[in-house]
Amino acid sequence: MAADGYEAVLTNLFEEDLDTELAWRAHEVGPGSAASFLDSFEQAKDAAVSFPAFMPQVEGSDYRWVPVKKRVAVFRIDARARRVVFLRLYNASSNWKSMLRKSAKS
Question: Which residues contact 26 (CB under 8 A, 6 or more apart)?
Answer without folding.
Answer: 33, 34
